[in-house]
Design brief:
Layout lengths: L10 E3 L13 H10 L2 E7 L6 H10 L3 E5 L11 H16 L4 E10 L7 H18 L3 E6 L2 H10 L5 E4 L5 H9 L2 E5 L9 H9 L5 E3 L22 H12 L3 H15 L2 H5 L8
Parallel strand pairs: 1-2, 2-3, 3-4, 4-5, 5-6, 6-7, 7-8
Helix pairs in contact: 3-4, 8-9
Length: 279
């Protein structure tokens, strides 16, 4: 049995693609079960414009969902500068409505999959940082093989901060992001014993700099096989992994990472209702 979770100790999945097709058949059940597993809020980041309306709809329908709007670097070949204009208009309209938009994301740079469109990636990243700055919103970063380049852009366009999703850089790069107001996301990758660098970061970074995520349905934790889908239901065990690495109670991990999430994504504090104790 899991350690009893305090009423104020709500797990927050800061990165979950719940709009993905693999959740189409049982999305409602997953969200209900997530609450039973202590997950009081799921942040759904966008990846491309055609998903924007769906994300807003999911957040409106479910009390334990909120969302971010942005264009993922791996999809920028499918968009044009007009989409940046439309994104800015949509964010402006959405914020007037006071709904559950908490950040700009998932945005960033990915030089692991492709390096041929570096200039285009940099353009769209910079434009979306400007949108975040204009609207005083944090950002949710995607960074692969491009942390130094991302840091350069963040120093040029100083945004409110945000989350570096699935962080796997160096301690020095982590410290640079923290100095710029970012928290670092840890999830399934941390659960693999062979992920020595990531586990060392999770063990040694200031706990106040860490938030939890699943990146579901991607980045499954070590206990799932290739045929099993990742989901927010795994977040409690991910928290327990971090607790084991830090050698502290899981209740402390849950409490601190919740506060970290609410600090870096301030609107979550108003949206996230503490759960009743779970045993």
């Amino acid at each position: 049995m899991h350690e009893c979770l305090k009423k104020t100790s709500t797990l927050i999945d800061t990165h979950c693609h719940l709009d993905a097709d693999v959740f189409r058949e049982d999305r409602e059940l997953i969200l209900q079960q997530a609450l039973e597993f202590g997950v009081g809020m799921v942040v759904i980041p966008a990846v491309k414009p055609k998903h924007f309306a769906q994300l807003a709809g999911l957040a409106d329908q479910h009390g334990n969902c909120c969302y971010a709007l942005g264009i993922h670097p791996m999809f920028i070949d499918q968009v044009s500068p007009k989409d940046i204009i439309q994104l800015n208009k949509l964010v402006t309209q959405t914020l007037v409505q006071q709904n559950k938009l908490v950040a700009i994301g998932e945005i960033g740079l990915d030089f692991y999959v492709t390096k041929q469109n570096r200039e285009a990636q940099a353009y769209f990243f910079g434009e979306q940082l400007n949108i975040a700055k204009t609207h005083d919103l944090p950002v949710i970063l995607h960074v692969r093989s491009a942390i130094d380049e991302v840091l350069k852009q963040l120093r040029l366009t100083k945004v409110k901060g945000g989350i570096a999703h699935a962080f796997n850089g160096s301690m020095q790069q982590a410290e640079a992001l923290i100095e710029l107001g970012f928290k670092l996301g840890f999830g399934g990758a941390m659960t693999y014993i062979r992920a020595i660098k990531i586990r060392e970061l999770a063990r040694n970074l200031p706990l106040e700099a860490i938030v939890l995520e699943t990146d579901a349905p991607d980045m499954p934790p070590a206990w799932l096989d290739k045929k099993q889908r990742n989901s927010p239901l795994e977040l409690l065990k991910i928290a327990e992994t971090l607790a084991d690495l830090r050698r502290i109670p899981v209740s402390q991990i849950i409490e601190i990472t919740r506060k970290n999430s609410e600090m870096v994504l301030p609107k979550i504090a108003d949206l996230c209702t503490p759960l009743q104790a779970l045993h």
